[in-house]
Design goal:
Elements: E1 5-10, H1 14-25, E2 30-34, H2 46-60, H3 63-69, H4 77-105, E3 109-112, E4 114-118, E5 122-126, E6 134-143, H5 165-168, E7 177-181, H6 185-196, E8 200-205, H7 216-228, E9 232-235
Parallel strand pairs: 1-2, 1-6, 2-3, 7-8, 8-9
Antiparallel strand pairs: 4-5, 5-6
Helix pairs in contact: 2-4, 2-6
């Protein structure tokens, strides 16, 4: 059995990275376990990708300047998507490199493999090397494995025309039309991205307003802004 760590963090996304770095800063012996080849979590998944996509889409299509200058940029759907993907990949790469450097700077051990909780404050890591799984004792264990899009039963997500949030963040082709189901933060984000890229977007939500956790005035303003962009917003549907 390996020497014990003061802290073992399962999941090397933004939360896991920051928790590990903070403990290491105070002199603790820390390890981070992740099944991916590189740390990053949501930085290489939907979250950072979608944020970068949104900003790049608004910039490339001139949406931010239209109200002021009454002009926009017409790059063509294929060119816009290509540049959008290039920019998104650059940002993801830079943030992943930053996470790797931060863990190394704090002397944190990064272990690759599938982690499960074992008895007596241990973590069992399968795939960390050849042979039997590695058993790692720890004084404290933090689980920061993040989340993934919910896939309701009965929906054929193996159909290439049906996307969840992770798949939408990796889109590499222009879309002529799109129906976004759900008026929460993620749905509104992708609806605005593809509207800016010229797709005919319909945003559908079963509730009476978008972003129900926000003030009603903000939700109403967002819906009006989306309609001004050319999006169809169906609420209470």
């Amino acid at each position: 059995m390996a020497a014990p760590y003061d802290l073992v963090v399962i999941g090397a996304g933004p939360a896991g990275e920051k928790a590990a770095a903070q403990a290491a800063y105070w002199g603790k012996r820390v390890a981070v376990i992740d099944r991916q080849a590189h740390p990053g979590g949501t930085m290489v998944g939907g979250a950072v990708s979608s944020k970068t996509m949104r900003e790049a889409a608004l910039y490339l299509t001139g949406f931010r300047q239209r109200d002021v200058y009454e002009v926009g940029l017409d790059l063509g759907p294929s060119v816009a998507v290509e540049r959008l993907r290039h920019r998104t990949n650059d940002v993801v790469r830079l943030m992943t490199e930053s996470a790797i450097a931060n863990l190394a700077r704090h002397g944190i051990d990064v272990i690759h493999g599938e982690a499960t909780l074992g008895p007596n404050r241990t973590v069992v890591v399968d795939g960390a090397g050849e042979g039997a799984p590695r058993v790692i004792p720890a004084e404290v264990i933090i689980i920061t494995t993040g989340s993934r899009p919910f896939r309701p039963p009965g929906i054929a997500f193996d159909d290439p025309c049906i996307l969840d949030a992770d798949a939408a963040a990796l889109i590499d082709r222009p879309l002529r039309s799109l129906v976004v189901v759900g008026g929460g933060a993620v749905g509104c984000e992708f609806a605005s991205i593809f509207t800016a890229l010229g797709a005919d977007v319909v945003l559908v939500d079963s509730g009476p307003r978008l972003l129900p956790f926000m003030d009603g005035e903000i939700s109403d303003l967002l819906a009006a802004t989306f309609r001004d962009m050319g999006m169809r917003v169906l609420q209470g549907a």
